[in-house]
Amino acid sequence: MMRIYAYLRASTEEQCALRAQEQLAAFAEQHQASVASWFTENESGATLKRPELFRLLDVAQTGDILLIEQVDRLSRLNAQDWDTLKAIIHEKGIRIVALDLPTSHQFMKNNGDIFTDRILDALNGMMLDMLAAVARKDYEANRARQAQGIQKAKSLGKYKGKPINKALHQKITVMLLEGKTYNYIVKMLGCSRHTIASAKKNLDAQQNKELRVCSYS
User: Fold this and answer.
1) Residue 102 DSSP label
2) How far is the C-alpha of 150 from the C-alpha of 160, rounded, in Å?
């Protein structure tokens, strides 16, 4: 029986990886299906170092669906890494369905027509390659613009580095004080474990400071 696994990704902790969850759930419902499990992480699409994506690929079986909002949620990889990821997905027999790739929506129908399935596999393979290449080009263009902006800001003495998302850190701090686990916080806020560790480091520093003040009073 075909199962649907949804993958949600955002590049930074400032972005909410859960943003597209309702849209993907509604899409599955429109096709008389439901999402079996959600895999969420805040990692760059330009790297293969994405634990949740590979946890999904490990769980999924032949004929299962990897559901994404857009192809760039799955890949902003260079050509070599994209070929590596495709090979893993192909070997597992997993099919990619993306909301921005209408031809892939046919995979939501388990029609049992082998000839049609092969045609769709070939067509969607070409379309995925094209959209993945476009996503990579956009990524490289954005990186180039960012680098130019940073260089200009530095030359003007205005560059201050990446600002901390104070609202997100405050939410994480509250959950840490409530004794919530890292996994729980990641699931609820869609942030990365690195961000949680950063917030915890700040919390520990603040608590140690308060302890020193108390010991002197």
Assistant:
1) G
2) 9
Q: Which amino acid is at 89?
A: I
Domain chopping of the chain, boundaries = 4-137, 166-216
Q: How far apart are CA 187 and CA 167, in angstroms?
A: 17
Mind listing the pLDDT tens digit for each residue in 20-30? 999 999 999 99
**Is the CB of residue 89 less than 8 Å from the CB of residue 57?**
yes
Mean pLDDT of the chain: 87
pLDDT digit string (tens) for 192-205?
Answer: 888 898 889 888 88
190 and 10 Cβ atoms separated by less than 8 Å: yes
Q: How far apart are CA 94 and CA 61, in angstroms?
A: 7
What's the per-residue H, E or C state across 24-57?
HHHHHHHCCCCCCEEEEEECCCCCCCCHHHHHHH
CATH fold of 4-137, please?
A: Rossmann fold (3.40.50)
From the list 136, 126, 127, the residue with the least C-alpha distance to 45 is 136
CB distance 121 to 94 below 8 Å? no
Q: What pLDDT does residue 9 have?
A: 93
Q: 170: left (phi > 0), else alpha (psi -120 to 50), else beta?
A: alpha
* pTM given for the model: 0.69
Q: How far is CA 158 from CA 63, 149, 166, in A?
A: 53, 11, 21
To 10 degrees, what angle do helices 166-177 and 193-216 make? Answer: 70
- CB 65, CB 94: distance < 8 Å: yes
